[in-house]
Amino acid sequence: MTKLRMALLSGLVLTASCGTSIAGTPNPTEFPVDITKLNMGTYSSEPLRYELDTVAKPADVRTIEAKRYLDYMINSTDVDPIVNTPIKVETYFNADGPFSTPVFPDQLRGPMADNKLMAGAYVARTDGSSRSPRRLILSVLRFPSDAAAQTASEAIATGLRSPESQDIALTNHPEVHAFTKDWSTATATTSQGNYAVLISYGRAQPDQSVVMTNLAKAVDLQLTKLKGLSTPEWEDVLDKPLDPDGIMRRAFPQPAGITRQFVVDPDYGAHTPDGAIHYERNPDLVKKALAESGTDLVGRRGGIVYRTRDLNGAFQLQLALTSLGRRDETIPGPPQLPDTRCIRLYEPEAIRSYGLICAIVKGRYVAVVGAPAGPSGTIDRSLYERAAAQYALLAKSE
C-alpha cells in the first residue's frame, strides 16, 4: 500500500472520466487506521497534560528557562557544514551542572560557583570522523547580573588558557577574549547582558586560516542570535506556556505506565525549529525540511512531535527524519500503520541511544519514536508498540 501512495504522490497527471488529461499535482492522502486494533503493549494512548506540580521547584523553573536558550543557539553547520553529528545537548540549573557529565574541565568550577551560575545550555557537534575530527562547542550561561556574567566570562578565559596560549584579535568583536594554543583549537568567551558565552572550534590538523575564520564566524552568528534572547525575572518564567498549543500533550509519555504530568527529563520540552535542530542527526537536511514543510513547533517527550503546515508537509518532513546515513537501512513498519517509515541505524543516535526509529504521520503532525536495537540489530517489539501508542494518541488529540 505504501507503493500505491508513493505512486500517487509522484503522479503529475490526473485522468478525468471523460478521457481528457488535466495537469495538476495530487494531494497525499492517509490510509485509514482502526486504532482499536493497534497493539500498544503496556503503553498508554491517552493524552497526558504536561504541567508543573502545584508548587514549582526552583530547579524545575531554572531547567525550563535553560531549555529556552537552545532556541537562541546557532546551528553548527552554519559555521562548518561538515560539523553535523550531535555529541551532547545539555541544560543546567546550577553551578554543578556542567561538571556532572562532565563537559567542562574542573578548572572552571570556580568561575561557575563564584559567579553563581543560574541556568545554562551546552551543545557539542563533531563531523563524525574518528581520524580527523572537527568539532564546535557552544554554551550560553545565565548569571545573576551583567557584571557577574562579564566576570565569569573573563574567569572562564583565564581558566582555559595555558602558558602557550596566544591571543586572537576578532575584528568585529574586540571585547571578546579569544585565544589558541596551536591553531588546532581556538576558544572565545564573552558576555552579553546576563549571559556568558563560550565558543570553541577545533580540527585535527592545525590551520590558522580555517580555525580563525570559523571561530570568528561562530562568534558573529551567536552574538547576533543571542540579541533575541530576553532575561525574564524568575517569577515570570512560568508565564510562558510549558505546552504551547498542546504539542507536548500530543507526544506520548515514556516509560510505560508513567503517571506524572511533568518530568524534567534532560531533553523533554517544547521548542521552535531552531532549538529542535540541535537534537537532529542530519541538521542541514532536517533544517531545510522543517522550513519547507512549514514546521513551527516541536515537542520532545517520550515521542517527538512536529507540527507542520499540512499533510503534504508532514510526509515531506517524515522523509527527512528517516533519511539513511551510511550503513543505515530501512526496516518494515508496524502492522496496521502503512504510512509509518522505520529505519535501523548502524550506530545509535547520540541523544537517546536509539538504534531503531519510526516516523509516524497523522494529519499535519509527524511523530518520531525509537527503541534500542536488539542483539545483531533485531527489532525490539517495543518500537512497534510505541509507534502504535503514539499514532493512537495523535488520533485522540484531534
UniProtKB/TrEMBL annotation:
Record InterPro entries: DUF7373 (IPR055797), DUF7373_C (IPR056463)
The organism's place on the tree of life at top rank: Bacteria
Keywords assigned by UniProt, alphabetized: Signal
PROSITE patterns the UniProt entry points to: PROKAR_LIPOPROTEIN
Residues of the signal peptide: 1-23
Domain DUF7373: 53-241, 265-397
Protein name: Uncharacterized protein
Gene source species: Nocardia camponoti
